[in-house]
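Deliverable D4.2, example record:
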Amino acid sequence: PDPSPSKTDPDVCEDSREDQLSPDGPERLKQQQLVCGEALHTDEMSPFTAELLTESGETSYRFRCPGPGVFRCALTGLVFVMTQEAELRYNTVQWDENLLQSAGRMAAGPLFDIKCSEDGAVCQLHLPHCDTKEALLVDGLLSVVHISDDGMSILEPLKITDTHVVLKVPHLSALGLVWDFVRRFVNLSLPIEAQVLLFLRSSYTAGQRAIRRRRAHPHPFLL
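Output generated by the structure prediction step:
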């Protein structure tokens, strides 16, 4: 007998649900385009203070985004454009100066290692920069480095504002701002605007009468 018209193919329904949940599904891609498009034309952001985590002496940040929107970290200045609820974890890591020099680049800010609990949940990332309006007029001075297991690549920003470099996120790993070495050297007189953080690394030296004196070594860090 012919099946009832009211029945549907269960395989088709299952495929449809999986397609909608997939990071590359049409519904998800449509939502990403909508959220990211709106984010480029708005200054409205939801500030948050991330949870600080300390493990083996290393500090990282954690925040669970409640849903789609634009969220700004009050501690680092990072801005995440989200398409759905997801948990973010991120921390700063050491730049490989030799790798940068081989590409004719120099660090222009911290290198952030970013992870997200959901693939495709972060569609844009805004990295804070310290360049003035005069410096931003220099074409090609500022770009973004993306470092992964496949190596290092240079990414062109979608947009550069007075405070941030806006980037479409290919996939999350280590991301940071870099200057073109030659352009920065030629324009060395251009000022920068930054918050300077000093990190103290302590060491001890033996003195007379076996008195140990503490000596602090400051490490400047620009944000």
